[in-house]
Design goal:
Length: 170
């Protein structure tokens, strides 16, 4: 794998260096991310059918009850096979996996979180303080089909992009 949430040596050995341990203690990385990264490295090395993992960057994984959000590099979503998705779901007993490309823009993140439903609009709001926030407008009719509540979507967008985004329905 090109990029991992922690050092490859730390992941493989199970013993974290002081830097990785500090990141774990601070909540920048999680035990789940380390376990998933270790399993993905083993798959990449042992299974020829998962050799494509050498070209994948794995930045972050958010375990949100029965849904896991995995942050990968741009265009890496296209390389990931259904077989790998099924393996992760079965191994970690996950109902749903959402792949999100690493970005600081809220649009692709919102679209990934509400997929297959559509985003009505995304507006940039310039505050008097000089800060920028976003307003994502979604269809009211789709609300009951989303995997996350309005507040959860807002929290996830902030965690994944660092941007404050208000979600509204019309």
């Amino acid at each position: 794998m090109k990029v991992l949430p922690a050092d490859k040596t730390c992941i493989n050995s199970g013993f974290l260096c002081s830097n990785c341990q500090a990141r774990l203690d601070a909540g920048d990385i999680t035990e789940f991310e380390i376990d998933l990264a270790k399993d993905l490295i083993q798959l990449e090395e042992e299974e020829e059918k998962f050799a494509f993992l050498r070209d994948i960057s794995f930045y972050k994984a958010i375990d949100y009850e029965d849904v896991v959000i995995i942050v990968v590099a741009k265009k890496d979503k296209l390389k990931i096979s259904q077989e790998l998705i099924d393996w992760i779901k079965e191994t970690y007993e996950i109902d749903e996996i959402i792949f999100v490309e690493k970005t600081n823009k809220p649009r692709p993140v919102v679209e990934a979180l509400i997929n297959p439903y559509k985003l009505v609009s995304l507006n940039e709001i310039f505050l008097a303080t000089g800060d920028i926030q976003f307003r994502a407008v979604l269809w009211e009719d789709d609300k009951e089909h989303f995997l996350f509540t309005q507040e959860e979507i807002e929290e996830l967008i902030f965690e994944l992009t660092g941007n404050i985004t208000r979600v509204e329905f019309q």
